[in-house]
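Today's session is about reading a structure prediction critically. Students often jump straight to the picture, but the first step is always the sequence itself: look for stretches that repeat, for charged clusters, for runs of hydrophobic residues. Only then move on to the predicted structure, which in these notes is written as discrete structure tokens rather than atom positions. Here is the chain we will use throughout the hour.
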Amino acid sequence: MKKTSALMFLILFSLALPAAEHKWDRLPLSISNNVVAAAKVDKRLFLYSFMGIGEKKTWDAITNRAFALNTETGKWSEIRPVPGPAGRLAASAATVKGVIYLLGGYTVDSRGEETSVHSVEVLLPSRGIWYRGTDMPVPLDNSVIGVYHDRYIYAISGWSQTQAVKSVQLYDSEKNVWKQATPLAGPPVFGHAGSIVGDTIIYADGALKSTSADNPQYLLSGECWRGKIDHHDPTKIQWTKIATHPGKPRYRMAAGGSEHDQKIYFSGGAEELHDYQGLGSDGHAAQPSPVTFAWNLRTSKWEVVNDKTPNPTLDNRGLLVTSDGLVRIGGMEAGQKVTARVAVMPLKEKK
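Below is the predicted structure for this chain, in token form.
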């Protein structure tokens, strides 16, 4: 009887304990400016990392390698590389009906010349194979991407070869065709961050061209915008300027949306413009911001999630929102340190 009572006590005690945290391995290599995505395969959630730049931070450290994390086992496996002769930086990724679409980005050659890319690569996670989608009409990198109705992918502003563009390109994944949507109401930007939840686009910050000869050619933008997608015509967007977010404007933040939370989360980035090596115009290393915040669609207000995010990073091409929390994969930590860290941050607002 005493043994039975003791056994029952142990069972009840174990049930009262909090669930153990998932132990996920680090990426097989340190990588920054990589694009990330999530998709389910046989009801198991996988997280993906594509392309990016390695620890050397040189043009020949840019890779087209791709990796998948099984969130149940916590193990990474290398999958077929992204098609094409060279790796890319500042690309974008979106998942539609379990299929991953990889859009744009730019290549860097041995002379340091950067070329925006218009290609669309499509990954079937269940089979591990790639195929080519219809190219974007306007080549694009450092853009914001979002999905509407699990069908339409929006590529919102960004850099195209020699300048930032105001265009909003709309991809219909069912028909494999591109259309032009309502362009930005504000100035064209690149290196901004944002996402789509429901019928609402939110994007913030980035860089814009200076209008003064006394300033550098490009400056940080402190503007934040909301776009409402028309329910009857997805090419029509009503743009409205919204309040600035907590803290200073930032360049190349990570962002991701949550339909469940009705929030769009932002984290990291730097309070100065910088190149793909993480260097500002003064030649010093850009420092990542420790502030994580969110736009709450229910209240139409900004919320600080954590103003002291551990091991903050810049140059993450996406923030994955999972049941475990906000997931950052790779990126560049303070002091230009390219990392293999898989960081999981809580979703709850800091009190």
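Discussion point for the tutorial: The chain has one helix and 29 strands.
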